[in-house]
Amino acid sequence: MTEAAPSTTVQTSDLTSAFENGDLLLHYQPKVNVSGRWPEIVGYEALARWPLAGGGFIPPDQFIPLAEECGLVLSLDIWVIETVCQELAHLQAGGARSGLSMSANVSPQQFRQPHFAQSVADILTHTGIAPSDLTLEITERAVLDENETTGRNILALSEIGVSLSLDDFGTGYSSLFYLRDLPLKEIKLDRSFISGLPHRRQDAAIVSATINLAAELGLRVVAEGVELPGQAAWLRLKGCQTVQGFLYGRPAVLDHHVTAL
Ligand code: C2E
Ligand code: MG
Ligand code: MG
Hints:
Helices cover 46% and strands 20% of the residues. Strand 8 (220-223), helix 11 and strand 9 form a beta-alpha-beta unit. The protein has an eight-stranded mixed beta barrel with strand order 1-2-4-5-6-7-8-9, surrounded by four helices. Helix 2 crosses helix 3 (72-93), helix 3 (72-93) runs parallel beside helix 5 and helix 5 runs parallel beside helix 7 (148-160). The chain has one domain: TIM Barrel (Alpha-Beta Barrel). The longest helix has 22 residues, at 72-93. It contains twelve helices and nine strands. One magnesium ion (MG) binds at residues 167-168, 188, 190, 224.
């Protein structure tokens, strides 16, 4: 069940029932450190899936916007954070090495909730997960509105020790402002810059400069959407340590990755 079904018309009421019935599930995609002799999984990103009765699933690009529109995304994101923390606790109890982290995507709306940072702190406490083992991925849209509550949540989460990651880096309007002003730990270079590597000169220049800039700022860079060995080799040569993409693992249920290790 790794293939998306053809585009379907999705209804808010169906999505709400699917969520309330516990039908949504998470696939996990490995984040891989390629700086050493062998690639090493350093974490997983959780990606929400809505399975269809006949097989396949409705991709998040179709149902997350709907969940944002109707407000369900607030409960959905909390469920994702809670689930990844429980899964990580489970892996740690089974002997996973320390430092393995889990990443969850968080929608812009969530950051405007006054109690968001406290909810995350509560989840960390009751699952026993160290804040530094949780990464929250924010898109540039989340910070764009410069909402006061968003700023307070970002600061509080960073003070707790949760890692903040800027997703789809380079696709927004004020990327450099964010690098300067936000307490980030990681940036994720958008797949659209990676797909043309290593031959497309413009992509190579932007990616290479971003890797250097991030190093100067003390940020981890994750290259998204790495599909070809030539892309991975080029990124490694340029000093990008962490990559994510179909080359190293497609999003799948966690058991699949763990047994494949
Ligand atoms: P994202 O966070 O940037 O996730 C990366 C997307 O790229 C995922 O699509 C992943 O399956 C896909 N991908 C990873 N490696 C490759 C590759 O090598 N080649 C190609 N062609 N694609 C690759 P997905 O799972 O369809 O998710 C799309 C977006 O939906 C995510 O983008 C994220 O913004 C959003 N999303 C997914 N799950 C959640 C969630 O639980 N909460 C929220 N708020 N948003 C979510
Ligand atoms: Mg993401
Ligand atoms: Mg992304």
